[in-house]
Batch of 2 targets.
Target 1
Amino acid sequence: MIAVYPGSFDPATYGHIDIIERSAKIADKLIVAVLNNSAKQPLFSAQERLDMLKETCKGIDNIEFAAFSGLLIDFAKNNGASAVIRGLRAVSDFEYEFQMALTNKILDEKIETLFISTSAQYAYLSSSIVKEVARFGGSVSSMIPDAIEKRLLQKIR
Ligand code: COA
């Protein structure tokens, strides 16, 4: 099974990395796909986000990285994927995720959305929280890997 794990990853956190590691054990090939046309104003360019992900996940063999724009389902189809992976942190994620999964199902019924629950210690995490804590000088070392923290601190200085 080829699976796509899409997201903004602005920047990737330990929560994302946890989902990547666990999904890579289920999928034959996992494509981590960085959204390039987000309505959000990203702090990092798509290339920077890709570079950080690649650096962090370099120990995992069956993984590829790509940036995409347009519809996720088109990206999945063009890359031969039969599943989209999403992480669920809390009940509050459910409504949005369910809406996306149903929309994607209408767009292509052959591609399934698989939800993986985040590990409990990362259930509170989001990229915005990490950026906010870092902006105000708080420690983010328990939230993101050192290499990403270094880049984040350079960026916001
Ligand atoms: N650990 C920590 N944080 C997590 C997480 C996890 N396991 N899973 C999600 N998050 C956080 C992210 O950091 C992000 O935080 P932020 O809002 O503070 O930046 C937030 O949850 C949601 O981000 P993400 O998972 O990156 O999703 P997204 O909403 O930015 O993008 C796409 C979701 C890319 C899948 C979706 O927008 C998409 O498919 N876009 C393409 C257009 C399309 O096809 N649209 C039709 C489908 S409805």
Target 2
Amino acid sequence: MPHWWQSAVIYQIYPRSFQDSNGDGIGDLPGIISRLDHLVELGVDAVWISPIYPSPMADFGYDVADYQNIDPLFGSLTDFEALVAGLHRRDLKLILDFVPNHTSTEHEWFRASRASRQDPKRDWYIWRDGGPNGEPPNNWLSEFGGPAWSWDEVTQQFYYHAFLADQPDLNWRNPEVQAAMFDVMRFWLARGVDGFRVDAIHLLIESEALLDNPPNPAWHAGKSPARRLLRVHTADQPETHSMIGAMRRVADEFSDRVLIGEVSMPIERLMNYYGEALQGFHLPFNFHLLSTPWQASAIAALIRQYEAALPPGGWPNWVLGNHDRSRLLSRVGGIAQARLAAMLLLTLRGTPTIYYGEEIGMGDVQIPPECVQDPWERNVPGLGLGRDPCRTPMCWTSRPGVGFTDGVPWLPVGERFAQFNVADERKDPASFLSLYRSLLRLRRGERALSLGTYRERWADSRSLVYERIDGARRLLVALNFSDQAYAVQELDGPLRVILSTHVGRGKQSRWPVVLEAHEGIVAEL
Ligand code: NOJ
């Protein structure tokens, strides 16, 4: 019997940007609750919400000041309970973001830790003396620019932070930290949460010797300054896996919960995150579609490589967008390509994650300098590292506040909403939303798509053709990545086209099948 998270489609909500209910320009939990029927209509199965805990919002919630409450900006624990109930009533699952690597400097643990060297919580964070000339303990760099060590005047030591200085790293070598964080997991699991997306897990532990990271020969100006060094001593340390195993045991104290890891790693190393005997993450996020050239043979090769690398019984997953990356539409070059990408994502073998707004064809929104919010863009301006463009408000209507807020939205809404918004797209059979709904309906109704095997039929520089198979049921997916018509190579036996990215095609039931530019089809064989 497969687990729910194998056949599920996950939908990521960035809570600041989904729906505002009180006119402050920032999305909140009552807002999300008021939009649950959109998710039902869309046809997804689970919702992952980026952090909603009390936070000074230096990194928009990824700087947690209290793991066991809700930030008043988003609502209250009572709203949270209503959200869980509303989702479960609709047969939707809830996945929360768990941020174990670091807290906010405002967390009471860090306040205690920085108060004196003798404080019982001193060792909950990573404190070190500087060098003889007052320099940081080593050359480690913060992901968001500058050194990864900040000086603390009061106790005259440096503390380590993989991200902002406002996000001190917890010391996971300390068993008290482990126990406290496992209790945080239990707190939410006991409140009905169906699983966690675990933040920045590959950075959880650093080498104890604090050796300098070596230079990265592939770095060049224009890339993130943090990539000047290879993260040999700060990422993917072997001890991380025993911590993930322990997190998994906590999740397993409850029935049928899922653990998803945010792991940015090459495929071979990513596979270790399934854990020994699959006792690690159920789903270590597979981000490789985000960085593979948008070209049929490159994508075919990626699928082949990923499928071949999976450990026995390991369940695949695919991601095309999230709150850290440029939106799909802006990456792949246009509407037709983004529609084709949707068909790819929702017909591949493995759990797909849809980023909010992709279902209506939202693209990156250009952010004028005076509106920049993301601390990364502020620290390292001008390199295009900022993540505001992909975090703009969900467009519900074509009215000025886009149906998101009655106030001033925290980020600009861009221009596309006039055409690309939920209200208008619901009525238009040729819209993104209609395509996503059709794809999701098909996936839900077809075991071959949700749980069947994957078999590549052929791939060349222009097209990718594969089958999804469940017993006698065979579905053919043919994707034309090129801007010219493409004749699908004829297969034995009859076929019937059941869905196309192009609305005009109809239910063709005969060979030959000639795909239009950027067209994708699903056909029964
Ligand atoms: C990864 C999250 O996705 C990103 O948004 C955040 O800034 C960092 N981790 C730090 O928590």
